[in-house]
Amino acid sequence: MSDKWKLAVAVIVLLLVGSGVATYKTLRLGIPFWRGEQVHDWQIEARVSFIATGRALKARLSLPATAVENHAGQESGSLGYHYHIENNLGEYTALWSAAQREGSQALYYRLRIPESTRSGGEPLPAAAVEAVNPGFTGQLLEAATAMVTRATSLTHDPDSLFVALFKQIQGEAGAQELVVLKRHYQKEHGENALIQMGIDLLQMAGVPARISFGVRLDEKETGSQPPLPLVEYFDGAYWKVRDPARPGSVLDGRAIFVWHRGGGPLLEVTGGEGSRVVFTVVRDRIPMATLADLRESPLLVSTILGLPLSERAVFRYVVLIPLGAFVVVVMRNILGVATLGTFMPVLIALALLEIPLARGLIMFSVLVAAGLWFRFLLSRLNLLVVPRVAACVVIVTLLMMLLGVLGYRFGMSVGVQVTLFPMIIIAWTIERMSLIWEEEGKRSAIIQVAGSLMVAVLAFMFMKIGQVQYWAFYFPELLLVLLAGILMIGRYTGYRLSELFRFKTFADS
Amino acid sequence: MSENIHVRRRKWWHRWLLMPGELRERGVVGINMRNARYLLPNNPRRLYRLVDDKLQTKALAEAHGLSVPETYTVIRSPHDAARLEQKLAKHPSFVIKPACGSGGKGVLVIDGRDAMGRFLKPSGSALTVAEVRHHVANILAGLFSLGGQRDQALVEYRVHPARVLTAISYQGAPDVRLVMLHGYPVMAMLRAATRESDGRANLHQGAIGIGIDLATGRTIRAVHHGKPVTRHPDLDVDLIGVQIPQWERILEIAVTCQEMTGLGYLGVDLMVDETLGPLMIEVNARPGLAIQMANGVGLMARLDPVVLQHRMHPGASWEDKIAFSKQQFAVEE
Question: Count of alpha carbons within 13 Å of B260, Cβ hemisphere only?
C-alpha cells in the first residue's frame, strides 16, 4: 500500500512540477504553448514632417527611455541630416540637424518592441514634487473649484481623484461648469483640450500631472496615427501613466505603448513650420530567441535557447530520446511487441529522423540482410564473439560507404547521410538475429526484427510530430510529465494486447 | 471442490482473442501482473544470482541433498576449451550448457560419437570437435548469458529419461516444470519435444505443453501451438493420463528448491532419469506463463488461495504445503 502511495506522490509531484513550469513559461514568459502560435513584436515608425523655412534646422523627438535602454532595435533614416541620440539624465531624444533646408521634410525613427504586457508606462519612482496651480480666474475658477470640490469631497487619494475627475469630464450629462470649462479649453488648446483640462484640474486638486504620449498598438489600424495623448500624474511616490479615456484601468502593454513621458515636449522643430509627428505600427513575427521576457528569466536555461548555437543541434536529438523510450515502453509493456534489444528501436528511429523514411527502411533492410549473409560466412571461420562482431562492424561500415557512393552516383544525395545509422547497434542486431535464427528459427528472428522496425517507425513518427519536437525543445520540463506516464506504466499489471491473442485458448475452458 | 460449472458461450471474437475482462474472469496471469505482483515483491534481486548461475544452483542443491545431473567438467577459460577433447574423452554422451543461460539458449546435447569421432546430436547430425569448441567459445564470450557478460560452460551428465516419458517425446528429453509460490506447488507441466521443435522443450518453438494434476502426477491436458490436443503429432501416442514416475519425490524436490533459494515465486525444472530418478535441472526466477495454457487454468486461481494460506500459516512445514496443494488443486476426474 505504501508503495502505491509513494508512486502516486511521485507521479503527482512530477505532473505538478512539469505542467507548472510549462504554464509559467507560457503565461509569464510568453513562450507560445502551441507550435503554430507565433511570438510577435511591434515595429513602430515615427514620422516627423514639417516644412523647412530655409534657416538652420533642428528637430528633436523625444524617445521612449525603456526602448532605447533595452536596445530594442532602433534605427533612423533621414538623408542629409546629422543625427544622434541625446541622453539627458535618462531621458532620450533623437536629434536631427541640418544647415539649410527648404520645402517639406520627413524624418523617420523606427523602433522594435517585443509584444509584452509592459507598456512603458509603469510607475516611475521620483522625488516629491509640488502641484502647480493652473491659475484660473473668474468664471473659470468658479467652475473648476466646483468640479475639484466635488471630486475631493469623496477622496484625496491621487489615483481615485484621477478616476473621479476624468469620469466627470467624460460624463455625458455635462454639468454647467463643465460646459464652461470645455468651451474655454477647446478654444485655447484645440485637439487635446479635454486632456489638458483634466490635467489642470488635477493640479488644482493638488495632484501633479502632465501630458504624456503613447502609440496605439492595433494591427487593424493601418496607416498612420497621431500621438495618443495620455496623462501622467504623481501619486506621492511614483509617476503613473494612464489613458484618460479609460481612467479606471492600468495601461495594457498589448494595446498601448507609452512613447513619451516626463512632461517635456514630444517634438520640437526649429527652422521649420507645421511640424507634426505620426506613428505607423506593424505587427511582425520574431524569432523566439529575442523574446525579452524569456531572455531575462533564469528559466531560459530550461529551453533549447539556453544553449549556444553549436550545441543546439545535438540537444535536438538528445531531448527526443526519452520520447522514443516512452514509445518503446508503451509498445513492449502495453502492446507486447517483441523487439531485438530493448532500446535498439530508439536508435534506429533517431537515424530515421535524418533520412526519408522509406529510404531509411530500405537501407536498414539492405544492411541487415547483407550483414547477416556475411555473418553466416564468418561463422564458418569459427571466430570468437567480440572479433566476430567487430568484423561485422567493419563489413557494415563498408556496406554503408558503398551505399553512399552508389546513392551519390545515382543522384540520391541522401545516400551520404546513411552514416548516421548506429553501426555498432546494427552489427549487434545482426549478431543477435543470427543467433535467434539458429536457435529459434528464421521465423522468430524475422518476427523480432520486424517488431523492432515497427517500434522504430512508430517512435520515429512520434518524434517527428512537429508539436512534440517543439515541446521537447522549448518545454523540456514536460518530459517530467512523460516520466510520470512511464512510472504509471511501470505499475501497469493488466494484460498486454498480445496476450489477448496468446491466451485465446482459454475461450474453451 | 464444488464449483458451479456454467457453460460459457463462445463469442465470435474468441476465434482470435479474449477480452481482458474474460481473461481476468478465467484467472489468467499476464506478464505485467506476474512481474509486478509475484516476481518483484517475492524475489529479492540479490537471490537471483543463486539461480541465474547454474553452478551455484547445483552446488546449493547438492548441499541440500538433491540429485542433480553429475557435472563432468566446467570450462572457465579458452585454455580449458583447448583441452576439451581430452576432458570429454571418457563420456560418450553429455550436455554442454552456459552456466548463466536462460530459456534453454546455448544448450548442446551430445548423444554419442560416430565412426569418425564426431559428436552426434539427438537429431543425428554430427559436429566436429572444432565446432563444439566454437560453441564453447561462444558460451564463454557470453553470447547466451542473461546480461551478455562472460560466462562459463558446464558439461554434465546427459539425462536418460524414463521410458514412459521418452515415449511421448520426439527425440528430445521431456522435462517437468513446477511453478511454486511461497513453497506451495501451484501448477505443473510436462514439456515434450516434437519434430518441429527439434528436440527443444520451448512451447513457442512447437513443443507440446502437457498439464499435470498436482495431486496424482498424471497428465490431464495437452496443448500444441495453443490448441488442445490429445495425441502426439509425430508419435501418435496418447498424451493424456500418463503417470509421471516418482511424483511425490518431484514435489519434494521442488519444495526444497524453494527453501534453499529463498525465492518466493519460482519455477523448478526437473527431469526423470530412467535409473537415477528425478534430477533437478534448474531453478528459474522468472517462470513463463505458458504453463497456464498447458493446464487450461489461470494461474491466479491457484496463486490467490496460496497467498491466503501463506498469510494464515506462515510457518507451515513442507509436508503441509504439499498436502495443501494436492488437496486444493486436485483435478477431479
Answer: 23
